[in-house]
Amino acid sequence: MRDVAPEARLIARPGDGRVQVRGVTLDSGDVARGDLFAGLPGKRRHGADYADRAAEAGAVALLSDRPDPSLPSLVVDHPRRVLGTLSARLYGDPSRALSVYGVTGTNGKTSTAHLLAAGLQAAGHRVGLASSLETRVPGEVGRPAERTTAEAPALQQLLARTRQAGGTDMVLEVSSHALELARVDGTRFRVALFTNLSPDHLDLHGDLERYYAAKASLFTPDRCEHAVVNIGDPHGRRLANETLCPLTTFTLGPEAADWSARTIGADAVGTRFHLRGPKIDREVRLRLLGAHQADNAVAAAVALAVGGVDLDAALRGMEALTSVPGRLERIDAGQPFLAFVDFAHNTGGQRRLLPFLRSLTDGRVIVVLGATGERDPGKRAALGDTAAHSADVVIVTDESPHSENPATLRNAIAAGARRHARTTVHVEPDRRRALLLAVSAARPGDVVVVAGRGADQLQISASGSRPFDDRVALYHALRLRIAKSSSDDPEEGAPGMELG
Question: Where are the domains of the chain?
Answer without folding.
Answer: 9-79, 94-320, 329-492
